[in-house]
Amino acid sequence: MGYPHKSDPKENVVLSEYFGDAGARTYDGWVERGGYKALKTALGMEPNAVTDIVKQSGLRGRGGAGFPTGLKWSFMPKEKTRAHYLCCNADESEPGTFKDREIMRWTPHALIEGCAIGQYAIGAEVCYIYIRGEFTEPIKVMQAALDAAYANGVLGDNAMGSGKKLDMYIHRGAGAYICGEETALMNSIEGRRGNPRIKPPFPAAAGLFGMPTTINNVETLAAVPHIINRGAEWYSGLSLASEKSSGTKLLSVCGNVRKPGNYEVTMGFPLKELIYDLCGGMPEGRTLKAVIPGGSSVPILTREEAEGCILDYEGCVAAGTMLGSGGVIVFDDSVDMVYQIMRLAKFYAHESCAQCTQCREGTAWTVRILERILAGKGTQDDIDLLLDLADQMTGKTICVLSDSCAVPVVSGITKFRDEFDAYISGAREPVLTHG
Amino acid sequence: MSEELVKLTIEGVEVSVPRGTTVIEAAKEAGINIPHYCYHKGLPIAGVCRMCLVQIEGAPKLQISCATEVAEGQVVRVFGEEESKARSSVLEFLLINHPLDCPICDQSGECELQDFTFDERQGQSRYNDFPKRYDPAEQFGDDVMFVANRCILCTRCVRFMDHAAEEPVLNVSERGDRAFIGMHPDAELNHPWAGNVVDLCPVGSLISKDFLHKARVWELDHTDSICTGCSQGCNIHIDTREELVVRLRPRANEDVNKFFMCDEGRSNYRWLNSGDRIEAPLVAEGGSLVASGWDHALARVAQIVKGSTGDAVVLASGKSSNESLFFLRELFGEFDLKAHFRNFTVDGELPLSGVEGLALREERIPNGTGARQLGYDDSFNGVSNASIFLILGDDLEGITPEMLSGAKNFIYVGTTLPEAARNADVVLPATTVAEEDGTYVNRDNRVQRFSQARTAPGMGRPAWWAFAEVLKELGRGDAVDTAAEAFDAMASNVGAFNGMSYSTLGKNGQKLAESSAGVSK
Predict the structure, then answer these.
(1) Is CATH 3.90.105.10 correct for B5-79?
(2) DSSP A120-169
(3) What is the ipTM of this complex?
(4) Of A60, B22, B53, B163, which residue is 20 to 30 A from B33 by alpha carbon distance?
(5) How far is A299 from chain B (nearest CA, A)?
């Protein structure tokens, strides 16, 4: 991890090697640490060859969906008849996730280098880095690094002397979670309201400003220079379990552990070891109750499920959840799951863009029912109602925000039904007075 | 959209539609109206209400039919359990904050939320114990009121202002269930075409102050007509309640006005309800006009025509139908006729800029093209010494008595009797555009029918009927009983209309032959 704690020997420190090392933030410091070699290499290759290396590495999207990155790049039109764009999604807003923030804070040039390689591979002369507005410090660091990259000829009309034009801009978000959804992000860059768009058309056909566009997460792009430097085989070999999941993954651990923070492990690392070994386990006298392993939008795991969960794309699916963004939220036995689920639902209700009916109305209604249960006024019918609403909020809207709200509700009711029942029967004191 | 046809099955009905058609449009071919709110054929697709969800065989989840294109061999299900439940659920969500104030809502009776709630049998809500959101009504513009409580955020109004009017003053403000239709703080909804948002609104959220609480819509009769406001010839509905015109609404015609009409045209209906009407034929006797029956008055007109030769001057209103203009010309066929129509022009068009070929035109009369085709011009400058002078349907605004003096005989055919016409020899009570059937020709040479929406007061009759009766009296023609007969007589006589028939003009009208210029017998 590197900051604020020292890295654990069980970690596999690739992206986070220089976390906590202020020297890596400067252009000279980055070059001293081997920076911009990968870009130089890439600019000397055919763009398709760069894409092929990324394909062979098995790198998959780290933003949540886990889509193969090289494949995504290859969707861009081969014949370039219009402007192509690369968007870097740095709108990290998923509750429980704070890995991209650290990449930008400590190794801004790693991201710039990754973006530049991606741009070159897909034929995009312009890249937009869309950074969450609340990330005031990372924005400053990134802007300084971007200025330095231009000043040193890394970017611009003649990037690293290659004759290629690579331009990059930082676009600051204005505080909407939904702008992390790729098409909403494009609308936001265009100056429109950050509403997700209907797909198709997909971004590779008509994305930013209606042009072919690829959008990748910060962590995904930051991994690209390492792949170019050390080879696709090295990266695809970084796998402890399923060979479909390769590389390292930054995991943001928060909640009831002794040492919360970012940990970088090889794909296939056991969740149990992450919690008990790397993060120091539960606070004194507490036991593990539940874990959300991939940011707030993925199903909750019980203690038993969590302790058997393997942290890669396939392992999480096998455990009934998803790796998502890698935001690991840990709950100990003191936690009121009904309340936690209400808080999550409230987040989604607040952040719904209000386009789709099910999401706009369903998220808010869900919150009201949960609040009613927490106020001791719930009934068993409310449980059925919550599940029915969740069913109607799943798979029926433009984007998955609505689904994301339904996920913790359904998994929470299914796995922690007794806690709901306790509020409904009166066995548990109400914690809210309204509802 | 190519003309290549794609075959698909919707609820067991096989249809063939051009490639590129959306499923919701294809369903209409199968006789199915898939419930929808945000979708409107005249606006860009938003895909947000999620009401038009259907099952498409092979798709992993339900699809919105408004944004899904047809594909060869596609099998679409609309009324199966899953998609019906999804639509019921959308209705339940929409009704969370909808006030159910239908008894005092203007939209009631033509409300898509009511209609689809009945269709989907979504009569119950499980949102029982929570209070509904309440926001006061707002003025959006001079005529448009916004009742936020009823809004279902379909965004049709926003998209109309963004993409059709191209004056983006409306928006969606806030997020989640706090969202509402907002307006630019320094703007008002007073675009010359803004009134269309009232028609577009599927619920009673955007309403017209002019129509507010005027009628329950189920009391209204709807008649197909043509707007008389300008030469664009927008297709409209005249809505009447017990013989009173209470509002005008656009009627869809892809070739003329798409789905829209301007506010000027929309508000131009009060004259149709005027109480100040000539209710009986009047004949001059002993220095004053005396009420008479039609027979006597028509005989008097025939007598005048028969007893005169030489010059005749005719001044017709720009709102006169082709049929009336044609028979009027026939009446003076044996004279040296100077035929004029009254034109009104205003500098500058008021376009609906996002829609091609649609504007409030400079020529503010509906039938200038028809009049020109029938040999009329708009250069009236006096009567001089004509043996007969006839005015058809004009209120003579701006015309001085001097310009009307000098003719030996003066016949006035109209709906109201202006001061300047009180020295006429005969006055015949005519009908307005709302009281007769007939046709106009718009600026694009499109011949369009309008229909009778209310009964004419008193003894008023269409002018073409009266002129045909006089011709019969003179032994120069047969009686003409319907506008269809009148039109067909014109079509066989006037080159530009050759080959056309009233019955085949249809609802969308028909263009004059390209080469038709001027009059030929």
Answers:
(1) no
(2) HHHT-SEEEEEE-TT-HHHHHHHHHHHHHHHHTTSSBTTGGGSS--BEEE
(3) 0.94
(4) B163
(5) 20
